[in-house]
Amino acid sequence: QVQLVESGGGLVQAGGSLRLSCAASGRTVRTYAMGWIRQAPGKEREFVAAIPWSGVNTYYPDSVKGRFTISRDSGKNTVYLQMNSLKPEDTAVYYCAADPPGYSGSYYQATTYDYWGQGTQVTVSS
After folding, report:
1. By C-alpha distance, which of 71, 73, 83 is closest to 16?
2. pLDDT tens, 74-96?
3. Can you tell me the distance from the alpha carbon of 97 to that of 110, in angstroms, rounded to the nearest whole number?
C-alpha cells in the first residue's frame, strides 16, 4: 500500500513562489514514477509535472515549463514541486500521485497514476 501526503500549499501573491512536498510511504515507492496534478474549481484535472524513479528526466506541460521544477529525494521518499513566478491561473488543488513500475500510460495523463494524496490548496492572488 502506498500513502501520499502533500504539504506546503497556501496563499501567495502573483509572482511569488511556493514549494510543495509529498511524503510517500510504502516499501517500493522509491521505484515509482511520481507526478503532480492540479484541479481548479469547475475544471478538469491538469497534469503539472512528473519524474520517473531514476529522476533523470522530468516532464512538464507548456503552461508551467520554466516556472515549476519537480525533484525527488529517494532517501527521504519525498517529492517536491518548486513553483516560481506564480500566476492567478495556477490556483488549484495540487495532488501528488504515484505510478507503479510498468507502462500504464503517459505521464501526461492523470489516469496513469494509481495512488493519490489528499491534495493541498494553492491560491495565487492578483
Report:
1. 83
2. 889 999 999 999 999 999 999 99
3. 9
* Torsion angle in degrees (nearest 10) through CA of 58, 62, 65, 70: -40
Strand-strand pairing, 33-39 and 120-125: unpaired
Condensed to tens digits (0 to 9), the pLDDT of residues 108-125 reads 999 999 999 999 999 999
Beta bridge partners of 4: 24
Cell of 51: 519524474
The 3-class secondary structure across the chain, one letter per residue, is CCEEEEECCEEEECCCCEEEEEEEECCCHHHCEEEEEEECCCCCCEEEEEECCCCCCCECCCCCCCCEEEEEECCCCEEEEEECCCCHHHCEEEEEEEECCCCCCCCCCHHHCCEECCCEEEEEEC
